[in-house]
Structures are given as C-alpha cells and as structure tokens.
C-alpha cells in the first residue's frame, strides 16, 4: 500500500489575539530593540583600558581571594566567611593557580565546599553544639505539607545507610561463624 | 543580629551573627524589613554553586531602612526606606557607565564574569545578604533607591530582582509586535517574564513548566497559555513547532537555569554529579524550539563550568542568544512607573510570608514546591 503523504498546509493560526483585559499591551514595544544592537549604552570606553577613576579603596581586614583574571582587588568586596582550614587551603590553591577559564579552578572549589561542610559539623560538635538536622533541613514544612514524601525520603536514606553500614562491618562480626584456621603444631 | 546561615546542601540555620559594619566610606547599613527567597538562592541551597562557604548569609532581594551611612554617602540619609537592587555597582567603571550595572568591575574580586551580588557565594563577591536583620550595602550612592511615597513594601521588594529580571528577559528577547514568545519555567521570574512579554507587544505567550499549580497561576496572572511538559506533550520542540505552524517560536526565554528537570542525562550530570554547571535542559529545549533566526533570552542562572547544549543547531539555525544578570538600576525608573500606574502588580505573586526565624522551612517549601508556593518573603522580627 502506498504511504499517504499529507501535503496540506496546517490551518492553525500562528498568532492568537492578545488578551484585551491586560493593561499595557505593547507600551514598551521598541522596533529598534533588535539583537544586533547591544543592550548597553555604547561608549566604547573599554578601548582606553582600565582607565576610570577608581572609587576609594576598601582596606581588607580579612583574607580576600582574588581571581587570576584581574590585576587587583576591586574597590569594594564582601568580607563574609574568609577561607579557613583545609577547605581554605584548597580555595587559596584554586584562586592562586587556576584562572576562571580553567575547570580545575571550579572543581577544586566544589571539593573545598564539600570539605567545608564536614569541617563545620566538626566545629559544631567541638563547641558542644549538635546540629539540629531536622530543623536545618526544614523538615517541619515537609511534615506539614508532604508527610508521605518525607517518610519515604527518610526511610530510603535510613535503609541505604543501614545497608552500607552492614557491608562496612567486618564479616566476622556480623554474627557469622568465623572461618576456622588451621593450627599447625610447633 | 538574627541571620540565615548556610550550613551545607539543603541545610539552613537562623542564628545570631555579628552586626554588619561600615567597611568603606560609601557603605550604608540597612535594617531589613522584607527579604525574599529567590529561585537563584536554590542553586546555592542545593550546593550547585562553587565557593559557597558554610556560614554565609544568602539573600539578594531585600528592602529596608537606612540606619547608618559612611562618610562619603550623600544620596541617602538615615531613616530612608530603600529598595536595594541585587547588583553591587560602583557607577564609575566602564560597564556601569554603559548601564551594565550587573557587570560592575569594581565589586567582585573573586570572579570577572559577573559583577557583585548580595548573598551569592564568593563568586558574587563574598557579600553577606539580606536574609538577616541588618545588611551592609556598598556603593550606597549608586543603586539603592528610596521607595516612592505610597508604594507597598511587598511591591518594592520585588523590584530588587524578580520584576526587573522578568522585564529584562522579555527585553533581551527582542520581542516585536505579534511575536510568539515561549517562556521556560513558571517560577516567579518566568511568571514576570510572561507578563512583561505583553508590554513589548507579544502576540502570543506560552509558558512551560512541570507543576500544574504554577501553570494555573501563570495562566491567571499573565493571561498566557500554559502547558505541562511532562503531561501535555512527549517532545517539547515538537509541541512548540506544532503550536507555531511548524516554524518554531520567535523568541524563547530560559527562566529556569541550573535546576531544570525533564532530561535524565542533564539532571544526573548537571544537578547530581556537578559535572556541568547545572542541568541545561531548558536551554537545550529553547535552542531546538525557536525558529530559524530566532532569539533566545537567558536569565536562568548556571554554574561557571561547561554545559551540554546543541551548539550545532544554534549555528545552523542562525540564532541569537542574549543573557545577562539584570541591570536593576537601569530598569527601576520605568518599572516603578509601571507599578505606580497599575500596569504591573508585583505583590500578586507573593504567596508566603514567613518569619525570618523559619527560613529553613521557607527554603524547604520553595525547593520542594510545597503548599502551592510561588514566591516566599522572609520578614524579620523588627518588621512584624
């Protein structure tokens, strides 16, 4: 049987009538807003290089890491959470050795982030503070609005953790009889 | 003071932290009265942004009262109620001079691709954010804007990011009258992008998301078409082609970024293993759904590493892609007009007002899309 080919033009109108009960239709339409025009108010000042009059410079009172792709610190900067510990060493290494163009910069920082989480749990415990994971994860909201999902999620996590713990436990301590060893008479 | 403190992926604590101090003569200290949780904060919350350090306070959408000013601050005075745009911008560098306040070169020593942002890890400059009782606001002469008389604070807080970002998403899409615009994502920014697309004369606005409650919301709020990409179609690009007489959309807006669902490979490599700068599913769909010669506008946030997208199709189709962090200061005057004359109703997207002390629950609600949440606002004790 010959396959049938539908050559008819689709009849669906491409554009529908915009809603009439919405204020402001078309009031910001701009025929000149064509993407071949840049979004900026072009000055081409970049051609003079790093030449603007800089603001007063903030004085660093904590360690600030700087991208290799800049010649200096910016005039202002945030001072939140300076680098510290092992994660801080990794962050210093990432900033000092790899540009933003180098994926090692980012993957080193991702690794530092993971280590930083562990460091902070240890810091909490060392200072006598046991993190309230249930509170920090906002599970009260899950309990109120998605109880089943929370139970499944926590149950799954618990089962996986228990399974891994079982596998990690030495075989001879899992209630199994240890293999007998042959003892040779001396 | 009370402040949100990041403790690790999906862990948030509200604790006492030292009061912020004036560190630079152009600084101001602001007592926060409203602070939103943004979809971009979820990238941090989920541990997808490199150099997000434990102990940092998030929050780049906040308003408040000026309580202290540095010696060189002339445009604000103590007692002023201000909108604080999320960009930290000097107003002097070449990029600020060209209206690119999201690209300031004097606000972020740690990364050159982006300017400085409040509460956005150290790739945003290491500034603690506004999910706290007080915040340090650098370059107070430049971006912070006094809230106009009579403006509802709930409207004002959304002018710090969500409304400008939705507006710039539509602006960057180069919408011409009659154009068909497809918005990927019905979160707060996607909703606002859909609403603002009409301001530029769109002929048709289509929004895609996976959550029915969000689609229902955007359909009512932005008077657009809304479809569930998991239920209403098997293939997104095919669906859009069929909807557009087999041409493709004139413009596609990526209002999702790194958290996108819908493609297992993207999700595993981008969101779980962090081998990409997030899941680029929305970008992938945008490239394949837009017409030849069409425009893609990107306001979804991705991490700094590589992403898997169909670049071959991008070239072969002759597409144009525009993206940027929103230049809030550039857009504020026009958007304030739109709010004041009733064209835009930002506060209409706020669904949850949450005490700052319950920030962890707010993040959980927003991250897991519980209780039909669209936009959560955190309110510190002093503002209640």
Q: How would you characterize this protein structure?
A:
Chain B: It holds the Pfam family ADH_zinc_N. Chain B: GO terms for molecular function: oxidoreductase activity; zinc ion binding. Chain B: Keywords: Metal-binding, Oxidoreductase, Zinc. The complex is a heterodimer of chains A (186) and B (384). With 186 residues, chain A is mainly α. Helices cover 38% and strands 0% of the residues of chain A. The N and C termini of chain A lie far apart (90 Å). Residues 9-13 of chain A have low confidence and may be disordered. Chain B is globular and about 60 Å long. Classes of the chains: A mainly alpha (186), B alpha/beta (384). Chains A and B meet through α1, α2, α3 and α4 of A and β2, α2, α5 and α12 of B.
Characteristic key phrases:
heterodimer; A: 186 residues; mainly alpha; 5 helices; B: 384 residues; alpha/beta; Quinone Oxidoreductase, Chain A, domain 1; Rossmann fold; 2 domains; seven-stranded mixed sheet; six-stranded parallel sheet; 12 helices
Secondary structure elements and pairings:
The complex is a heterodimer of chains A (186) and B (384).
Chain A: H1 85-97, H2 103-126, H3 133-136, H4 139-145, H5 147-168
Chain B: E1 2-8, E2 11-16, E3 28-36, H1 39-45, E4 62-69, E5 81-84, E6 87-88, H2 94-97, E7 116-117, E8 134-137, E9 145-146, H3 153-158, H4 162-172, E10 180-184, H5 188-199, E11 204-209, H6 212-222, E12 225-228, H7 236-243, E13 249-254, H8 264-272, H9 281-289, E14 290-298, H10 311-316, E15 320-323, H11 328-340, E16 350-355, H12 359-368, E17 375-379
Parallel strand pairs in B: 10-11, 10-13, 11-12, 13-14, 14-15, 16-17
Antiparallel strand pairs in B: 1-2, 3-4, 3-8, 3-17, 4-5, 5-9, 6-7
Low-confidence stretches of chain A: 9-13
How many individual β-strands of chain A?
0
CATH-defined architecture of the largest domain in chain B:
Alpha-Beta Complex
Q: What best-fitting shape of chain B do the alpha-carbon axes yield? A: globular
- CATH fold node name of the largest domain in chain B: Quinone Oxidoreductase, Chain A, domain 1
CATH C-level class of the largest domain in chain B: Alpha Beta
Number of helices of chain A: 5
Helix content of chain A: 25-40%
Q: How many discrete structural domains of chain B?
A: 2
The CATH homology group name of the largest domain in chain B: Medium-chain alcohol dehydrogenases, catalytic domain
GO molecular function (chain B): oxidoreductase activity; zinc ion binding
Organism (chain B): Hymenobacter jejuensis
Family (chain B): Belongs to the zinc-containing alcohol dehydrogenase family.
Cofactor (chain B): Zn(2+)
